[in-house]
Design a protein that fits this description.
Length: 303
């Protein structure tokens, strides 16, 4: 029970949704505005757009990257289906259900109280957003990036191989890489086509050697140094790393920058509101604990 209350409190503080099913009182049903748009209907039970939007707005932005509104609606529909089937089978008459319902009443009361207190005090002003952005600017910086391709000719990687075997393999790989470089620089061959046919990097060859965008430190140092030194459209000489011999081409470069306030405003609003929610929660619990009469027999706990 304690664990569930704490989870509930955290959900309320962070704004995460709490998926519970509870039958509404008849008086509550009357409050539904007749002209509300019906987003879905599950065996006669209506899901109103207005209610859905309220639930959706409570989900923190960072959790929405892997959750679409359609998936969220599916979750609501699935929960309703399960609840309706449970009622058909008389689950609400079972002793375990009644005990859970009593537990849930306590949690819902706590939830309603916390929500009311927090809604009054968590509104975020433009001044607060600007101040937070100013104080946390370094958290919204984007490092310098390059978008590059490469052609890789592998060398002998078996540590147990004899030195002369390694030397022969390396010389052969280097010669092959230099021949490809000659095709690129002197014969003006197409880099993408050569990467597809010659590169021995299975992860990028089929995409014309594309490695996508990366910042400093994401690649092996020898590769990194050359890639960031090249100009847009420039092709490197043969570059030796532990993986073999590379030929690198930089498609584009993006300088380091700080994200503008407009780009991160939603994140900041969420961060500021969460700070306020934690503070309100701590203050409420401290106040109520001091006023309340609480006894705990911790020796009864399993240790």
């Amino acid at each position: 029970m304690v664990k569930r209350v704490m989870v509930l409190a955290i959900c309320i503080i962070t704004g995460m949704p709490v998926f519970v099913y509870a039958q509404k009182k008849a008086s509550e049903k009357k409050t539904v505005v007749a002209e509300s748009k019906i987003l879905a209907e599950v065996n006669g039970k209506k899901v109103y757009l207005e209610d859905f939007n309220k639930k959706w707005q409570r989900i923190p932005q960072q959790y929405k990257y892997n959750l679409t509104q359609e998936k969220f609606l599916d979750n609501i529909v699935q929960t309703e289906l399960l609840a309706q089937e449970a009622l058909k089978q008389g689950a609400d008459k079972e002793k375990t259900y009644k005990q859970k319902l009593e537990d849930l009443k306590v949690e819902l009361l706590a939830s309603a109280f916390l929500e009311k207190e927090m809604d009054k005090k968590t509104q975020t002003t433009e001044e607060e957003i600007a101040q937070y952005y100013k104080e946390h600017k370094n958290e919204y910086s984007v490092p310098e990036e390059v978008n590059a391709r490469h052609i890789l000719i592998k060398t002998e990687l078996d540590p147990k191989a004899e030195p002369d075997v390694k030397a022969t393999a390396n010389a052969k790989a280097e010669a092959e890489a230099k021949a490809i470089l000659k095709q690129l620089k002197e014969e003006k061959a197409d880099f993408i086509e050569l990467a597809k046919s010659k590169s021995q990097d299975p992860g990028s060859a089929q995409n014309g050697g594309s490695l996508g965008s990366f910042s400093r430190g994401q690649m092996i140092k020898e590769f990194d140094d050359i890639a960031f030194a090249l100009k847009e459209g420039e092709i490197s000489d043969v570059v030796k790393t532990d993986f073999g011999y590379h030929i690198i081409k930089v498609d584009s470069k993006s300088p380091a920058r700080e994200k503008e306030l407009a780009e991160v405003k939603e994140q900041i609003v969420q961060a500021v509101e969460n700070q306020k929610r934690y503070k309100i929660f701590d203050e409420l619990i401290t106040k109520l604990t001091q006023k309340g009469k609480i006894t705990k027999n911790v020796e009864l706990l399993n240790k």
